[in-house]
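Thread title: Can someone regenerate the structure for this chain?

I was given the following input by a collaborator and told the matching structure tokens would be attached. They weren't. Posting the sequence so someone can regenerate them.
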Amino acid sequence: MTPICRLRIDPDEIAAPSTRAAQRAHYDAVRARLGAGPIRAMVRPAPVAAVRPAAPQPVSAVEEIAEARRERDRIRCRIYRITKAAERAGISTPDIRPPKLPESPKAKFRLPALPDDHDPSRLTAAGIIDYVAAAYGVSAAEVRSDTRTAGVVMPRQIAMYLLRVLTQRSLPDIARRIGRQDHTTVLHAVRKITALIAEDAGRAQEVEALRLKLTGGAP
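Best answer:
Regenerated them for you:
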């Protein structure tokens, strides 16, 4: 049986008025006749300001290569674990080799000009470190840092060698000047550069040129 609607609506109520306020009042009256509540105004949420991510800081080529080498070592560790697990399970694995990475940039040697106030008779640790770092195209901060790339390790060891040869500073004092805590690091650097001078004529010429420049040509 079809239900009978006993609600009577005036045809004038069906025609919507022209203005928005009159339309809202008209719709509320119709909904009240139908037993519904008034139309609630829609509240739009306040727009949220978009937060832009901070721009990434530029990374030097030396840092990129160092990070790539660390990632390569992590990949090698994963490959080793997977290979050993496959061997225990009796599964043959293909020969997986990690990607080859470019070699660390080698330090380029170039004798820079000494500062005007340079006094060969009063050599300072900071002056020697700054000059050796400039000769190999790195900064003094990198020489004092923990960077282990070849382009920084060699100038660091040469600076420690020259500090030991040209000054009367002790090994612990040189270690502190170079940003190290253990004096054995300085001892290792001195021994390594001494052996390198005896074996590599090119490196021996570089160290001698630095020594002569810093001492003003004194033997």
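DSSP finds nine helices and no strands in the chain.
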